[in-house]
Every structure is written in structure tokens, then in C-alpha cells.
UniProtKB/TrEMBL annotation:
Residues 10-108 form the HTH araC/xylS-type domain. This is Helix-turn-helix domain-containing protein. Pfam families: HTH_18. Keywords: DNA-binding, Transcription, Transcription regulation.
Length: 141
């Protein structure tokens, strides 16, 4: 993979980070990277260790966790606010990545994070893949 390829992949990853709540798909992201969809998907996984879809969903779940911690939105509202179109798929993916349902996460006491700056909370609460296909949430202790 060339340095130019990595720059283009980073540009596509930046689009995911910025526009995670927008409808994004591999063909659109591949156009940003100036690659074919198949080459883009393979290259993205090689460069970043996960597929573009997995990366996008991780960003969406990270944002959903922040919105759920605030407690002023329903799970359905959060689902749509982060760009998911199916409550069932959102809940399944959230549970897979976080280890508990969005409702249970929202109901949990999050006061220990109130004094933690959001940039640090994001680091510690990011879902981390421990084994291929499995993830676990980091908990602040």
C-alpha cells in the first residue's frame, strides 16, 4: 500500500468520523478515497484493522453512549440521531459492542463520569475488540 493510498483512506475515515450520522455506504466512501468499492474495503481493513462498516458503527455507538449518558433522549431518538435507521439493528449492535442493551446502559448511573472531560471519557469508554468478532467495553474504575 502506498503513502498516497493511506492518505486517501484517512480522508475517507475522516468523513466517517465527521459525518457518522449521515447515510454512508462503501461506494460513497470509496469515491472519497478514489478507489473501487472492493479495493477500498480491503485496503481500509488492512490499514485500520476493521471494515469501513464496523468502523462507522463503532463511531455511531460511541456517540450513542454519550447521548444515552445525558439521559434526555429515548433510545429510539438516540438511534435515529446517530444515523441508524433500524432500532432493532441499533440495539443488537449496541449490545454486541457495549455488553448491555441501550436501555440498560441509559438506566445505569453515570455520575462518576460527570467530572471526567468528554475527550478522556471517550478514550476510556470506546468499545475495544478483544477477539475477532467480539468486543468489550472499557470501564472507568
Amino acid at each position: 500500500m502506498t503513502l498516497e493510498d493511506l492518505v486517501r483512506l484517512r480522508r475517507a475515515r475522516d468523513v466517517i468520523n465527521r459525518d457518522y450520522a449521515e447515510p454512508l455506504d462503501v461506494p460513497a466512501l470509496a469515491r472519497v478515497a478514489l478507489m473501487s468499492p472492493g479495493h477500498f474495503s480491503r485496503s481500509f481493513r488492512a490499514a485500520f484493522g476493521e471494515t469501513p462498516y464496523s468502523y462507522l458503527m463503532t463511531r455511531r455507538i460511541e456517540r450513542a453512549k454519550a447521548l444515552l449518558r445525558r439521559g434526555d433522549m429515548s433510545v429510539t431518538e438516540v438511534c435515529f440521531a446517530v444515523g441508524c435507521t433500524s432500532l432493532g439493528s441499533f440495539s443488537s449492535r449496541f449490545t454486541e459492542l457495549v455488553g448491555e442493551s441501550p436501555s440498560a446502559y441509559r438506566a445505569r448511573d453515570h455520575h462518576e463520569l460527570a467530572a471526567v472531560p468528554s475527550c478522556y471519557a471517550k478514550i476510556y469508554l470506546r468499545p475495544v475488540r478483544r477477539h475477532p468478532g467480539k468486543t468489550a467495553d472499557r470501564h472507568v474504575t
